[in-house]
């Protein structure tokens, strides 16, 4: 009887007390079965709702990624005396890195790279807010441009960092901070006025492939009220290039935990010295993936590259 599906049995002669006890035990088992079935149904419904919520959130994040990428409308800018190439790769759907280029006036451009602390949606929202401060769409709202006697002129890079710091401390009021590297480039002479605010060192690569790391650091933006920033200048010679990178590159870990560092970046750039423009940036990503052992980098990656050809 047990083999064909019975749950219990009694032998004759039947004892009435034993019968009642076994019926109560069977009733308890049935009650537990009904409770388990109800819990399973509730769990299935909850999982379905969570799946719908996840799918909705995933769609929103994909849309947010598209919107963030749209902030970087152009990946290349060609000028008579030089060329700008940009790379932006978030580690997740959205990230806190941003790079960009804008024209100050016919003879000058601004090139920037910044990194908002943290990851996720909050950092991405802050990134979008700060990108608007350095937008080339409207010079009236760009904090790096001011009106001069004969037209727009560039604000000194240390002043750009001070203005951004003041806005973050007084208006945006967030616990997050930003590292920034900003360069004002003269297209005719190759002169670059720059500021480094907690960001990795700007890189100058010479025609022979040798690499120089510029400046010595500086405070991040939005961390200390009234912070002061120092500027510096460098003059690019024809055939040289300036590279602004985020710490997602210099701090990229190998499987054993060792970070790439400035020395590793120098080795890669020296090896890739003959490549130009986006080909260089793509090859840099390949080299970084080979270093890490995979392409799922733990941090956002961004690069802003200016290659100076020299006067026509």
Please supply descriptive tags for the structure shown above.
312 residues, alpha+beta, six-stranded antiparallel beta sheet, five-stranded antiparallel beta sheet, 6 helices, 13 strands, elongated
The rounded distance between the terminal residues' Cα atoms is: 99 Å
Largest sheet properties: 6 strands, antiparallel
- Overall geometry comes to elongated
Radius of gyration: 30 Å
Strand content: 15-25%
Classification by helices and strands: alpha+beta
Main sheet: strand order? 1-2-13-12-9-10
Query: Order of SSEs, N→C?
Result: HEEEEHEEHEEEEEEHHHE
Number of strands: 13
What's the total helix number?
6
Helix-residue proportion: 25-40%
Low-confidence region ranges: none
Mean of the pLDDT scores? Answer: 89
Question: Secondary-structure blueprint of this entry?
Answer:
Elements: H1 16-70, E1 76-78, E2 82-89, E3 97-105, E4 108-116, H2 121-131, E5 145-148, E6 151-154, H3 157-172, E7 178-186, E8 191-197, E9 203-205, E10 211-213, E11 231-235, E12 241-245, H4 247-250, H5 261-271, H6 277-292, E13 301-308
Antiparallel strand pairs: 1-2, 2-13, 3-4, 4-7, 5-6, 7-8, 8-11, 9-10, 9-12, 12-13
Structural account:
By secondary structure, this protein is α+β, with helices and mostly antiparallel strands. The protein is elongated. It is built from six helices and 13 strands. Strand 9 and strand 10 form a beta hairpin. The chain has a six-stranded antiparallel sheet. The longest helix is centred in the N-terminal third of the chain and has 55 residues, at 16-70.
């Amino acid at each position: 009887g047990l083999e064909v599906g019975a749950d219990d049995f009694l032998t004759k002669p039947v004892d009435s007390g034993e019968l009642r006890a076994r019926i109560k035990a069977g009733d308890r088992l049935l009650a537990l079965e009904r409770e388990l079935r109800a819990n399973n149904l509730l769990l299935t419904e909850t999982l379905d709702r969570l799946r719908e919520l996840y799918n909705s959130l995933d769609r929103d994040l994909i849309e947010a990624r598209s919107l963030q990428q749209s902030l970087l409308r152009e990946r290349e800018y060609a000028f008579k005396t030089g060329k700008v190439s940009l790379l932006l790769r978030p580690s997740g759907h959205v990230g806190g890195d941003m790079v960009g280029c804008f024209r100050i006036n016919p003879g000058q451009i601004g090139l920037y790279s910044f990194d908002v602390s943290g990851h996720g949606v909050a950092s991405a929202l802050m990134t979008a807010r700060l990108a608007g401060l350095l937008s080339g769409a409207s010079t009236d709202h760009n904090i790096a441009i001011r009106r001069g006697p004969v037209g727009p002129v560039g604000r000194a890079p240390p002043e750009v960092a001070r203005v951004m710091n003041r806005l973050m401390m007084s208006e945006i009021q967030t616990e997050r901070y930003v590292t920034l590297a900003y360069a004002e480039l003269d297209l005719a002479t190759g002169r670059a006025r720059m500021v480094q605010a907690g960001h990795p060192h700007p890189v100058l690569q010479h025609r022979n492939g040798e690499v120089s790391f510029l400046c010595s650091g500086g405070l991040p933006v939005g961390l200390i009220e009234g912070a002061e920033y120092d500027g510096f200048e460098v003059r690019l010679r024809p055939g040289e290039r300036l590279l602004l990178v985020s710490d997602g590159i210099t701090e990229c870990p190998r499987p054993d935990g060792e970070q790439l560092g400035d020395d590793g970046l120098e080795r890669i750039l020296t090896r890739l010295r003959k490549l130009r423009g986006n080909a260089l940036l793509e090859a840099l990503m390949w080299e970084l993936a080979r270093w890490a052992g995979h392409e799922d980098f733990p941090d956002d990656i961004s690069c802003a590259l200016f290659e100076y050809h020299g006067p026509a």
